[in-house]
Specification:
It is a single chain. The protein starts with a helix and ends in a 6-residue tail after the last strand. α1 packs across α3. Helix content is 10%, strand content 44%. The chain has a four-stranded antiparallel sheet, with no helix packed on it. It has a four-stranded antiparallel sheet with strand order 11-12-13-14, with no helix packed on it. It contains three helices and 26 strands. The chain is mainly beta.
């Protein structure tokens, strides 16, 4: 158990790109009294995580964990983390989150979940997994395409697009009960669901009145309200963190660009001007920056714009990026890409320096 938890903690911290591991050379103190600070300082360690793990009489796993500041020779954090049998990785993720938060000041995201679509041939699975790609759970499995999974703000539901009725419709499914509800099954195409931050509405894209336009709808399918009235293609809506406005993709200017509109409707203003193809806007949790996909010399790459300065940085060196999604702490972005003809999931830090591929079965 101790080795399994240790592996999860180590891999989480390494994957963040912010930590370097020190060779323990066979030494493994478990209590503060067993720690020789000068010895660890001499090895170059700045922090030391120690602890013990045991299985309780009721079968639960209990890890007692301490984080020590080697330089100041002081304890930074101490906590008991417990989980049910079979949740060893969850214990490791929680400890890694605590270490990350104490040493960086940012919230850890190792205990969060990711959702993605896995395709093998003509078979599609909607999958939920841990942030590192382990503990896959299949939410939906079928021989028709599944697209655009979107988390509800509280993580209890997924909205997604399914083609099981031979045209695109939007479902909302509970991850606790597996029950699902048809959110939008209007004539034409129903696509691109995005949750409002309060969970009380979703933005969706419908062609029921002609071209692709953005509408708001309640999670039970009621209260539909049209937001855009352009007569061209408006799609890929994404709410601001305060729910006051939407970013979306539109070709109303002659090429696909990103626009902003109040969530109550009104006039839209253009956000992107560089290049002839900028799509799939995703706002950071603090609302200060926007991730999107830009066509750059024939390559589709993940980009990040500072909304105040309008400065844009290309974050990846790949060619077929899509579907960006910010981690809850805003420090990394998850995205889908393609390497040697195979779909992969990757993460990149918001400064572009730290790039990782997830070792998920989604490849």
């Amino acid at each position: 158990l101790a080795a399994a938890i240790n592996d999860v903690v180590v891999n989480d911290l390494l994957r963040s790109g912010l930590f370097r591991m020190i060779d323990t050379e066979g030494r493994s103190p478990h209590e503060p009294a067993e720690v020789s600070y000068p010895e660890w300082l001499a090895r170059g360690a700045e922090a030391l995580a120690i602890g013990t793990v045991a299985v309780q009489a009721n079968g639960r796993i209990e890890a007692r964990f301490r984080l020590l500041d080697v330089v100041k020779q002081a304890e930074l954090a101490g906590q008991v983390v417990s989980a049910s049998d079979g949740q060893v990785r969850a214990v490791g993720h929680r400890i890694a989150d605590l270490i990350y938060e104490k040493l960086t000041g940012d919230k850890g995201v190792f205990s969060t979940r990711i959702a993605y679509v896995n395709r093998k041939g003509q078979h599609y699975r909607l999958v939920v997994a841990d942030s590192d790609g382990y503990n896959e759970q299949t939410v939906l499995s079928q021989n028709q395409p599944i697209m655009s999974p979107a988390w509800s703000p509280d993580g209890s539901h997924l909205a997604y697009v399914s083609f099981e009725t031979d045209h695109a419709v939007v479902y909302v499914q509970s991850l606790y009960t597996n029950q699902r509800k048809l959110l939008a099954g209007f004539s034409g195409s129903n696509s691109a669901p995005a949750w409002a931050p309060n969970g009380k509405q979703l933005a969706i894209v419908l062609t029921r009145d002609g071209s692709s336009q953005i509408y708001l709808i309640r999670p039970d399918g009621s209260g539909i309200n049209r937001i855009t009235f352009s007569g061209v293609i408006d799609t890929e809506p994404n709410f601001s963190p305060d729910g006051q406005y939407l970013l979306f993709t539109s070709d109303r200017g002659g090429s696909p660009q990103i626009y902003r509109i109040a969530s109550s409707g009104g006039n839209a203003e253009r956000v992107t001007f560089d290049g002839s193809y900028n799509v799939t806007p995703r706002l950071s949790p603090d609302g200060k920056s926007m991730a999107f996909i830009a066509r750059n010399g024939g390559r589709f790459q993940l980009a990040l714009m500072d909304l105040a300065s309008k400065q844009t940085q290309i974050l990846t060196d790949s060619t077929k990026d899509e579907s960006p999604s910010f981690a809850p702490n805003g420090r990394t972005i998850l995205y889908a890409s393609e390497i040697n003809g195979r779909g992969v999931l990757g993460t990149v830090s918001i400064d572009g320096r730290i790039k990782q591929k997830l070792s998920v079965q989604a490849a």
